[in-house]
Design a protein that fits this description.
Layout: E1 8-9, E2 22-24, E3 27-32, E4 38-40, H1 41-54, E5 58-61, E6 67-72, H2 77-86, H3 94-98, E7 102-104, H4 119-131, E8 144-147, E9 159-165, E10 170-177, E11 183-189, H5 193-208, H6 218-225, H7 228-232, E12 238-239, H8 271-278, E13 284-288, E14 293-295, H9 296-303, E15 308-311, E16 316-320, H10 326-332, E17 346-348, H11 362-373, E18 383-386, E19 398-405, E20 408-415, E21 423-426, H12 428-444
Parallel strand pairs: 1-2, 7-8, 8-9, 17-18, 18-19
Antiparallel strand pairs: 2-3, 3-6, 4-15, 5-6, 5-14, 9-10, 10-11, 11-12, 13-16, 15-16, 19-20, 20-21
Helix pairs in contact: 1-2, 1-9, 4-5, 11-12
The chain binds iron/sulfur cluster.
């Protein structure tokens, strides 16, 4: 089969796909949009084989619930694309592929505490986005989310259009943000999700064009014009939210969409809490990876230890129906199996080797900090090691930030990458030691 892929250069705001691979420091990067994030074990094995055979064997988990194959050689594109297409993970063309940004609760159908099994709704939405050519003009990062609530809720994932199940038949539709912050429009029936999405996508494209500076995301449109004009177009498909009623999304304890309470992070819940919420023998195992990076060998090993893999937006994989030795297999391959693992607090871009701008091994520095600082990281929410001042992995403030330039690091607390730093030009080893010293001073109040 002829390969229609068009290679795109790395640039800000661009999103790679299978049909739009991106040229980065270690070769071509292919983002595989897996419908509803559900990967049968056999598909995972085949993808691992593609990564080993045609790529550099590295695989990334994105925060939008996708798999990214790294280091694919140009002459490997055709066999990789054809194999992925055979599994149903590639659309007809790059435009229809680019808009399939649908995040689905990764525990859909596995969690009795969820309000609804949203797998079918997410698949239907994914298919509609691919088919509806009018929506292919949506900006590349425009995203959708279908959440069933429960242990794998997506309350704290921010996106453009949210469908959050309120019971077994209806979704709360809201625009631009997390569950707590998105602007509510009303309730729709589960069967109408794709039609609602079709109307909302068109409304976004038409209404943004009326503004002098068209916003690129739904939150910007809502900030500019509110929700009335958008909501009017949905009058046939949604019913109003009951006035004054505080709608709860089932299973997301503390989750009250009109409240201020932040949702719990559902990644790697303590074993006891998971068991108390979904039963004594959970039929799944969550395995996270530092920076969301794993190898093809690891993916193949995990695939051999379960029936199905769910891709999460938490840089973790959920192994469905894990074998007795699945936890040991994951542990052997360096997976994070506990919510207390300090490596969950590390964020880093690919740095040297993965990006042609990078001059340091950002992952190695971050892991060295976790090892050296140990319990000093308990009160820290995030350590960010950036390969340069761009801060691609985390554009916002982190508790600890290392910014590389020309092989050395600047170290700062409560700063963004590239911010002015009191400690500059440190070798990687000195930067790690400086972080440990600063955290010690913070913990002792020195
Ligand atoms: S922040 Fe990292 S990934 Fe982004 S341009 Fe700099 S080195 Fe490359």
């Amino acid at each position: 089969m002829t390969n229609p892929a068009t290679i795109q250069p790395r640039r800000r705001g661009a999103c790679p796909g299978v049909l739009a691979p991106m040229q980065v420091g270690d070769g071509l990067l292919l983002r595989v949009r897996v419908p509803a994030g559900v990967l049968p074990a056999d598909h995972a094995r085949q993808i691992a084989e593609l990564g080993s055979r045609y790529g550099n064997g590295l695989i990334d988990l994105s925060q939008r619930g996708n798999l990214q194959l790294r280091g694919i050689a140009a002459d490997g594109l055709e066999p990789v694309t054809d194999t992925l297409r055979g599994m149903g993970h590639v659309s007809g063309d790059a435009a229809s592929e680019a808009v399939r940004n649908v995040l689905c609760s990764p525990t859909a159908g596995l969690d009795p505490t969820a309000a609804m099994d949203v797998w079918a709704a997410a698949r239907t939405l994914d298919a509609r986005l691919a088919e509806d050519a009018a929506l292919h003009r949506l900006p590349p990062k425009f995203g959708w989310l279908v959440c069933g609530g429960g242990i794998g809720h997506l309350a704290d994932s921010s996106t453009d259009v949210r469908f959050d199940a309120v019971d077994g038949e209806r979704f709360r539709v809201s625009l631009g943000g997390t569950l707590a912050k998105a602007a509510p429009l009303g309730l729709c029936r589960a069967d109408d999700v794709a039609d609602v999405a079709s109307v909302l996508g068109r409304a976004f494209l038409e209404l943004r064009a009326t503004l002098p500076e068209p916003p690129r995301r739904m939150a910007g449109l809502v900030a500019a014009i509110g929700t009335d004009e958008i909501g009017k177009r949905l009058s046939r498909l949604i019913s109003p939210l009951p006035p004054g009623e505080r709608i709860k999304v089932r299973g997301t304890h503390l989750m009250d969409v009109f409240g201020d309470a932040e949702p719990p992070h559902p990644n790697l819940l303590p074993k006891e809490e998971k068991e108390s919420r979904v039963g004594e023998a959970p039929s799944f195992l969550t395995t996270a990876f530092p920076f969301g990076r794993l190898t093809a060998t690891t993916l193949a090993a995990l695939a051999s230890a379960c029936a199905e893999i769910r891709i999460t937006p938490w840089r973790a994989l959920i192994l469905v129906a894990p074998s007795k030795d699945a936890e040991a297999v994951a542990h052997t391959h360096g997976a994070i199996l506990s919510h207390t693992d300090h490596r969950l607090k590390l964020t880093a871009c690919s740095g040297a080797g993965g990006c042609d701008v990078g001059t340091t091994d950002t992952h190695a520095a971050a892991l060295a900090i976790a090892e050296r600082a140990g319990p000093l990281l308990d009160p820290v929410r995030m350590v960010h090691v950036s390969g340069c001042a761009k801060g691609c992995a985390h554009p916002a403030i982190a508790d600890v930030t290392l910014t590389a330039r020309d092989g050395v690091y600047d170290v700062a607390l409560n700063a963004k990458a590239g911010d002015a730093s009191p400690y500059t030009g440190l070798s990687p080893a000195d930067a790690v030691a400086r972080v440990a010293d600063l955290l010690t001073e913070e913990s002792t109040g020195a």
